[in-house]
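Hi,

Apologies if this is the wrong queue. I'm a grad student, and the batch job for Ornithine cyclodeaminase from Chelatococcus asaccharovorans produced an output file that my downstream script rejects. I'm not sure whether the problem is my script or the file. Here is the sequence I used:
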Amino acid sequence: MPMIDTTITRFLTEADVTRLIDLNDAMEALSDMLTLEFAGAAKNFPKIQATYGDRSTLHALASLAETLDIAGFKTWINTPKGASSVMSVFEPNVGHLRAMIQAGGLGRLRTAAASGIATDWMAVPDADEMAVIGTGRQAMLQVAAVAAVRKLKRLRVYSPTEENRERFAAQARELFSFDVAAEPSLERAVDGVPIVTLITRSRKPFLAGAMLEANAHLNAVGAILPNSAEFEPDVFERAGRIVVDNVERVMASSKEFRDRFGEDISNWGNVETLGCIILAGRKPRTAGVSVFKAVGTGLADLAVARLVVERAEQQDVGVKIGKSPPAQPRWRAL
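Support response: The file is valid. Your script probably expects a header line. Output copied below for reference.
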């Protein structure tokens, strides 16, 4: 392991992140971290979350991979008027703050990477069509993640707002070579499609099990708050395989899964983790709908951040902040 200069902290911007790594890099880094987590060599810590005002939230998420000598702490705020986040990366053996990263793009990369990995391992091998439900800032990378693991011929786009779905479809046509159709209804968008990705902030479930093709793969990655839901309970009735990014995080944050399996871990025996199926290796696909639920983990952020920081150090990218000596706090006496 190369020596790290503990006299500096590196500050990296969104532009630095996207220049240093791409989505395919993020998928590889996350795959490696998922297997470390399943082997017990990396750890997520419980998320701290607070809600205030009109659908505004504060979040903090920590993670540690001692064998890699790296730890991370992502903090962020999400409001109806905007959001921002920062990822702090530490060298835990000596307590050094190695880097601070503007983490909006990093978060979108790790969320999309999880969907791409899950699709690669769970969707039918010859799947060539996808439906994306939701057209917000995360949606395009979700399409790119699936396109990275399946040779798509067609994309169907749905948002309840016509202007949004038409705009997104037009942008997708500029970015990808496959056909793109903006669909007028949810039913039309998912009918007969082998891969469906939900990336919305819906508070009420809208996707019913009967809408899905018999062997469809579903990425449900938008509803990540305890009072949000994207799919109806009957989706589970059609599922041949159910996989999550992290059982404890999904239990804490997914209304869909809590309503189905409860809060007793003994009821979650049929729920696998993504790291588990990667470590087990390729096996024949189980018949039926496959469901992947991700709510985001600290280790997913850390996996991508680690690669960003390593490349920044190799290429000397970012603003370097020198370590200042301890300073005596001041006070004013009465």
